[in-house]
Amino acid sequence: MNLFRFCSGLKVLGYFVILLVITFVAVSYYAVVVNTWWPILIENNHKALSALACLIIFVFHFLLIMLLWSYFTAVFTDPGSVPEHFRRELVVVGDSLEAGTSTEQGALGYCPKCRNVKPPRCHHCSVCQRCVLKMDHHCVWIVNCVGARNYKFFLLFLLYTFLETLLDVVVLLPSFIEFFSQAIKRSSSPSQLASLVLAFGECSKILYPIDAVLNLAFVLSLLCFIVMHLSLVSTNTTSVEVHEKSGDVRWKYDLGKRKNFEQVFGKKKAFWLLPLYSKDDLHNITSLQGLEFPTRSDIDP
Hints:
By secondary structure, the chain is mainly α.
């Protein structure tokens, strides 16, 4: 029995995940802005505290805009698929395909499921049911594959989500400490503490510690994920290719840390932190299209 056919169900799950992301953003917005710092801004007469509230609200909205921009760009950008008429001189060998002549961009392959030639670094996604250019992984959070054309947007989504959730944790920490300090004073056992947490005061008061805990969990998990992907970017490797590399041999697509970074984020520094590319980068950096990739032999003949 082919278990991969059940992977298509992840697409349905993905749409619920989008709703979960929107719900999480809404809860954080309510806890941080509506119930905490906006009242301080409009009601407090202390200039320093009002200035701090203004700064926090501004940074929160800036990160939120960048987060949502990066997220929906990653969701709606096609990671790249093999062009319909992508063909070169090839020799069929059983269910595989070998290049009749080697190319500078690497050996071509053949996908028996799609029954089509595939360029280097291209892999078949069992969820999307197609080959994806420079596939990294299928991400349930964006209901899409992460590939050549949306990898940067995915990484920016991780970065801005990390910064936003870290900000949430920091600004909600006083409310978190106050909530549990009062709950501990009123309880004499762990079970009573748990019941007090569920029955403590107004709903908005309960929201602070819950949101702070959720954000803290997100911060820690996102930090690990970001470190992992930074390591992959620094060696010009995808999550799939980690298992293809030989341990003692330098990866043929490893061009050096700066060039590896530019293969994902482009050369225009002004666009590095934005979920878009300059026209020059799209035209001059072939890897951003996902069909051809420079190797070490191209820069170190």
